[in-house]
Amino acid sequence: MLYIVLIINILNTMKTLNKLLSIFTQLTDSRRDLGKKHQLNEILLIGIISVICGANTWNEMAQYGREKVSFLKTFLKLENGIPSHDTFNRVFSAIDPKEFEQCFINWVKELANLNDKEVVAIDGKTLRGAKSNGKKSPIHMVSAWANEQNLVLGQVKTDEKSNEITAIPELLKVLCLENTIVTIDAMGCQEKIATAIVDKQADYILAVKENQKELYQNIIDEFRFAKELQSSTDEDLGHGRIETRKCSVITHFNHIEKPNRWKNLKAIIKIESTREFKNSDKPTENATRY
Length: 290
Prior knowledge:
Number of strands: 11
Number of domains: 3
Strand content: 15-25%
Order of helices and strands: HHHHHHEEEEEHEHEHEEEE
Distance between the termini: 50 Å
Helix content: 25-40%
Largest sheet: 5 strands, mixed
Shape: elongated
Oligomer: single chain
Strand order of the largest sheet: 5-4-1-6-7
């Protein structure tokens, strides 16, 4: 049985590597034919594998290649041996980053095998310590995270957090999201983004906060005057506190202005949470989210 498992793992690994190798043949090779000693996709594949294994520099990429040459030759031709560190530097510096990103995302799609109704969380994060022209944190990354796979499916760089609104649609374009549930915080609560998710044959859960004042107030009124309301309550005890959460759901909308603007809108959800601390002077915490 162990041998069967090992054989399956080897075959899956070879399939993954061969798929990555074929995907990178789509990249534009800007090098001159004269003096070209190594295949572009072989250089890129060695570089990627070495980085996954912990390489951080061009020298370490080349060192990894030399130390693992026997393994690499099982799926690469390597007609002129392992590229030098200078070759890795020149090639990776010259390739089109957008082309490379698209190829890499296509490979991740092959790896992901997303489950039905898997949650894909799209969120932005400012890179701490990043600087440009003396200013701190100019880089903000918007990423899509597959919850069950523990895998980043793709990401887009923006200059400011406010640019998430434009970055999210660009990210959605390159992702395969069929039959998943996409969650986004309040910054991404936009009609066009909801439409883009549905067009990808996925469902959405969007947070609503006071940055959308009219929508936020309409939702408050919806729950205030609701005649048909489904609700459920649960308690969580642990870590010196008791947390009570009440989830209320509305599926008939009387106060949302033009609800059809939100493509495939099915429900509005209200989460009320109360956190009490045992053996502590901390005040009770209350929060409401929509």
